[in-house]
Specification:
Number of helices of chain B: 14
Radius of gyration of chain A: 29 Å
Largest interface: A-B, 89 and 85 residues
Strand content of chain B: under 5%
Strand content of chain A: 15-25%
Structural class of chain B: mainly alpha
Number of helices of chain A: 18
Strand order of the largest sheet of chain A: 10-11-12-3-13-20
Helix content of chain B: over 70%
Order of helices and strands of chain B: HHHHHHHHHHHHHH
Largest sheet of chain A: 6 strands, mixed
Helix content of chain A: 25-40%
Oligomer: heterodimer
Radius of gyration of chain B: 25 Å
Number of strands of chain B: 0
């Protein structure tokens, strides 16, 4: 009996190990290419001593050589350290789709957009420059026509050329499929024509210049010859396995916790921008930020875009490098805004909202919750890269900062007094209120931040408690408008201030607010101001500044939402295998990030500039 | 025999139907709207008209626009065809694919650790029951191991052996510089990554089993039949043999139940060691209201537990003569 038992146990152990080893293993693809090489050499020698001219022509024709070129997708099974870069912080689950039109964060394959599929232009948020990428140039020929000239020699990774027909096809996809995210473009785009292989014309009716610029560097171009035969369902929600794009990297393989991209040696951009240094990129999914921290300390990964609490200490001790050598260590990625639900009392009172802005202890959030990894936000909410649109006069008059005494004063002046002695103020009509500030459970930095918001508000006499529901419940409350006050940071780096104000003052107000204005602030005058900003051409900076000044004045007078701090573009890197990372000291720094939607904002250039440690 | 098993199978069948129904109901009564979640992850670039079109589209794909009873019927229909639906969190991967890809990692970790800790724990527990010296060493260690919060032990092992000493890697099922292929490098690498998570599970399991077995053996050795055999002059080996057999019964039940829930994965292990598996995905599915993935996982667990129970019943018939007698109607 004992013998039977022990042998069964041993057998089961071995069996499971064998079974798992025989699990799904991707079979490497081998591609053999035969190339005929002919070499012709012509040498001309001219001698003018007298009138004589001797021309020697040497022609060598080699016998056609059959060469098995390096397969397009190299299939090593062990990756050399000096050719591979290990990154983390972008993917949080196994890969499920390579469809570039799938919602960005639904795809844990964040390299699909940017690595495999590319855009007409690339935008550098730090300099504000828009660089032609697939396009060679683009300009408004008149108020309603935009001309694009593509580069010559663009190719897809299957060898076919990328032409204006592909671009036209991509834009027209959303005309046919309303479910694609860029279908609203067709409310003001009237047509796309391809004059020849590289020449495109977009015609508009009442164009939104600011939004159009966003499309230029956010819309991935897909190959017509592969996508025209897809059904609507496949286009909208198909997984698009084995993606074919024009980009610098190709899909290599994946595992439950990693995505591997391999460099496209035939990328058209090598001649234009340079060759990306790492041959392979392994994008790792760590189960939690703590494990990422361990891996960073061990030197197992080169770039980590996770939020690692305490990185300030590690950076100072020299374990990792960050963009800034000192506080705030990280670039600012987006603004964390406290949305107030203006449909509920007492948040429908502008005076209360303004008093609350002075009550929140942002310095503590910066120094304690984030341990100096972030910066306090400008009251306008605009990121540092767009600070030129901050109106100094408006800020001087209406800006806010942490001042509990002033907050108490403002509350008293607005009629909020503590009538029942519970240390919290009541509304002018005498009713008591108890508010909740929320964030999703598990977002530890935000959880610490809302604790500070609640405690500093209580110090000023406002009864606010911090509550952390599950993500699903939080999201439902956010979009359904049932929360009291909550944090949100969905406007990220952009070339125009319109992106932020579009998030803050989205209109019209509907039952479900899915992409902005969660507090349902209903003010037609402000909506008109934001629409006016959308219509200002991006070249007219003076016009944009004037429009922004008006919006900021309205926003700071009414304070329907309170910008608090800039979330960081978390990035810590190690120089054990790769150097020349972008830092504040670099001559032309790019973004050290692997996050979705950032490859075309400079992430790819970072890879091109890297150098392996020999 | 036939009546005994027939009745068992009927009970198991009814339990399965009831459990599957509850499984189907629970995700739908969770607060929050999964379509809203999917929409939220699209990001901020959506305008109202497209948002509505997208919302309708996704609701239709997942069949959430049908009335409840029709969703229930469709659930059983696809279940009998082996189709567990499409995951929302990992759209558009089918749930069966997600499970099939992730579960082997958990099996690889959990089955060896459960079996080995059971075997070793029982062995040591049995020794400890009769040797005072062993009892004084194994029992305290066993109590400490079983009382230690598992995540703390896991993090301690990861930190000590992974970071401080650097002997083992702390993340992944195989090296990030490797692609799965058949070679000694790869096999060695897999075992290298497997060892720490396995060890953490083994230690905790070992402690519990050792203590359980030790207590059972002592109980058996103090039972009437043991004293009677000793009084008859039977050799100690014989008495211990019978005591061991009786002590094994609850241990076998425990083993079968542990194996039954193996498909639920080891969530904390997967988080602490960043080991891929179904536990982590299940947690993510719950947080993202992924109806179908949650249903699929729970269904696996239900089936696992029911199968394990059934195997226990069969095993008991084989190894416990009292059950055999009970089946044919005789009283013990």
């Amino acid at each position: 009996m004992k013998r039977v038992l022990s042998t069964t146990v041993a057998l089961l152990v071995v069996l499971t190990m064998v079974l798992t080893a025989c699990g799904p293993t991707p079979t490497p693809e081998k591609i053999t290419v035969r190339e005929t090489v002919t070499v012709k050499e012509t040498v001309t020698v001219k001698e003018t001593v007298t009138v004589k001219e001797t021309v020697t022509v040497k022609e060598t024709v080699q016998v056609p050589v059959v060469v098995t070129a390096v397969p397009e997708k190299p299939t090593e099974v062990v990756y050399p350290r000096n050719e591979t870069i290990y990154v983390s912080g972008a993917a949080w689950g196994p890969a499920s789709t390579w469809n570039p039109f799938q919602p960005g964060s639904l795809a844990n394959t964040t390299g699909t957009i940017g690595f495999v599929y590319e855009f007409l232009f690339a935008f550098d948020p730090q300099t504000g420059k828009v660089t032609p990428w697939l396009a060679e140039s683009g300009k408004w020929t008149n108020a309603t026509t935009y001309d694009v000239i593509l580069r010559k020699g663009l190719t897809w990774s299957d060898g076919k050329p990328l032409t204006a027909a592909d671009v036209k096809f991509t834009f027209e996809l959303s005309q046919k499929n309303a479910a694609l995210w860029f279908s609203p473009l067709w409310t003001y785009l009237t047509g796309v024509t391809a004059a020849d292989e590289t020449h495109l014309t977009f015609t508009f009716k009442d164009p939104l210049y600011q939004e159009w610029d966003n499309y230029l560097y956010n819309l991935p171009i897909v190959p017509k010859h592969l996508w025209e035969s897809k059904t609507a369902e496949e286009t909208n929600s198909g997984a698009n396995e084995k993606p074919v794009g024009s980009g610098a990297y190709l899909y290599d393989t994946r595992g439950e916790d990693r995505n591997v991209w391999v460099r496209n040696e035939n990328w058209w951009g090598i001649a234009v921008f340079g060759k990306p240094a790492p041959k392979r990129i392994v994008d790792i999914r760590f189960s939690s930020n703590n494990v990422a921290l361990g891996a960073v300390i061990k030197g197992d990964i080169d770039l980590s875009n996770n939020f690692l609490p305490g990185v300030a200490t590690l950076a100072k001790a020299g374990y990792v490098k960050t963009y800034f050598a000192d506080a705030p260590f990280m670039l600012s990625a987006n603004t964390a805004v406290l949305f107030l639900n203006t449909t509920k009392k007492p948040m429908d009172d502008a005076k209360f909202r303004r008093a609350l802005a002075f009550a929140i202890d942002v310095p503590s959030i910066v120094n304690i919750a984030y341990a100096q990894l972030v910066k306090a936000a400008s009251p306008t909410g605009l990121l540092p890269s767009l600070s030129r649109f901050d109106d100094a006069a408006v800020l001087a008059k209406l800006g806010y900062s942490f001042d509990t005494a002033k907050a108490k004063q403002m509350l008293a002046a607005a009629g909020y007094k503590d009538t029942n002695g519970d240390k919290f103020v009541e509304a002018p009509d005498g009713s008591a209120f108890a508010l909740e500030v929320t964030c999703p459970f598990g977002w530890s930095d935000w959880m610490a931040a809302i604790d500070i918001i609640a405690s500093s508000a209580q110090a000023a006499g406002i009864n606010i408690k911090a509550v952390t529901p599950d993500y699903g419940a939080w999201n439902t409350a956010l979009q359904g408008g049932t929360f009291d006050m909550t944090l949100n940071n969905w406007a990220s780096m952009s070339n125009t201030p319109w992106t932020l104000y579009n998030l803050l003052f989205r209109h019209p107000i509907q039952e479900q607010m899915q992409s902005g204005n969660f507090g349902r602030y209903n003010n037609k005058a402000v909506f008109d101001l934001v629409d006016a900003l959308a219509k200002v051409p991006t070249t007219d900076e003076a016009g944009m500044k004037a429009a922004c000044a008006k919006i900021q004045e309205a926003m700071l007078t009414d304070m329907p939402m309170i910008p608090l701090w800039y979330n960081g573009l978390w990035a810590q890197f190690s120089e054990s295998a790769w150097t020349n990372w972008p830092t504040e000291k670099s001559t032309s720094p790019t973004l050290p990030t692997t996050w979705s939607g950032y490859w075309q904002l400079g992430g790819l250039m970072t890879l091109i500039n890297l150098k392996p440690v020999q | 025999m036939r009546r005994y098993f027939g009745r068992k199978i009927l009970i198991y069948g009814l339990t399965f139907i009831l459990a599957a129904t509850i499984d189907w109901m629970i995700p739908r009564f969770m607060p929050g709207d999964p379509i809203a979640n999917v929409m939220a992850r699209i990001g901020a670039v959506v305008n109202p008209a497209a948002a509505q079109a997208m919302r309708d589209y996704y609701t239709h794909i997942f069949g959430l626009d049908l009335p409840m009873w029709q969703q229930y019927v469709n659930f059983w229909n696809s279940l009998l065809h082996g189709d567990l639906g499409i995951s929302i969190y990992l759209f558009p991967t089918p749930v069966t694919t997600v499970l099939m890809r992730a579960v082997p990692y958990d099996l690889f970790l959990l089955i060896p650790s459960i079996l080995l800790s059971w075997y070793a724990g029982n062995k040591f527990g049995a020794f400890a029951a009769r040797s005072k010296w062993l009892d004084n060493t194994v029992s305290p260690i066993g109590y400490i191991l079983t009382a230690t919060p598992y995540m703390w032990l896991g993090i301690l092992l990861a930190w000590l052996f992974g970071i401080v000493l650097g002997w083992f890697p702390i993340a992944g099922a195989y090296g990030f510089n490797l692609r799965p292929h058949l070679s000694w490098t790869f096999i060695w690498d897999v075992l290298h990554h497997w060892f720490l998570p396995f060890m953490s599970l083994f230690l905790v399991g070992f402690g519990g089993q050792a203590i359980g077995m030790r207590n059972m053996i002592i109980y058996e050795l103090e039972a009437d039949y043991s004293h009677y055999l000793e009084a008859l002059g039977a050799p100690r080996r014989l008495v211990r043999k019978y005591a061991f057999r009786n002590a094994m019964l609850p241990q076998i039940t425990g083993l079968a139940l542990s194996l039954g829930v193996v498909v639920a994965g080891a969530l904390v292990t997967e988080v602490v060691f960043s080991y891929p598996g179904i536990g982590y995905l299940l947690l993510a599915a719950i947080q993202n209201q992924d109806y179908f993935l949650i249903q699929g996982c729970f269904l696996f667990i239900i089936i696992g537990v029911l199968v394990a129970n059934f195997i226990i019943d069969v095993t008991y018939v084989i190894i416990d003569p009292r059950t055999r007698r009970g089946m044919t109607g005789e009283t013990a």
